[in-house]
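Format notes (please read before filing issues)

Several people have asked whether sequences and structure tokens are stored in separate files. They are not. Every record keeps both together, in the order shown below: the sequence lines, then the token lines. Line labels are part of the format and must not be stripped during preprocessing.
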Amino acid sequence: MNHLFMKCSGLTQEKVFSNHYGAAALAVFDEFETPDDIAHMDTAQLAALIAAKGKNRFAHPDETAKAVQAVARGSYRLPKTVNDSVTQVLSISISSMRTIQTQIKTLDKEIARQFENIPNTLTSVPGIGPVFSAGIIAEIGDINRFDGQAGLAKYAGLTWTQHQSGQFEAQNTRLIKSGNRSQYYLCKAALFFESQEQGLVGSISFCILQFSAPFQS
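Then the structure lines:
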């Protein structure tokens, strides 16, 4: 992020791109040597670049292009010698990130292919694909080894500590410190349902219910 800031400070300070490491953002960082190059480029051409690199996921690439140029105009300018060094380092970093992203996509496809041979119902949960499902199964194992939903929640580290004193019982307590990688997958699944305005705690409960469906049979 430090090199991104040095390259074009405005793009890292303003939320022009939702992901600074997305394909469109990296293309802008990589293909232009200075903020002036971005600011002075034809807006239509920049919009076309953003649309192409973003695989047409930008609803209004022309507006995004204008926003990019606006923040580029307000970015710091580096001396040429410093800018050349930053550009070289950043180019190498971006190349490495693209290689890793390609490898992740390859692994995701292989996981999905292998997962087709594993009977399960996890992928029926909206927003949970084969990669997350495979992670959950790998971490949880045989669901029948748990006594119930509470046991699964505790195993994943998704239960809260209790603090009682006499008739007093604290309502706001911390999560227990135990748990494993399944907590990550369950919380990521819960975030999808939270985006559907169901609330994070309720979403986590919903996901645990879905993943512990065998207890209901």
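For reference, the curators noted about this record: The beta strands are 164-165, 168-169. The first strand starts at residue 164 and ends at 165.
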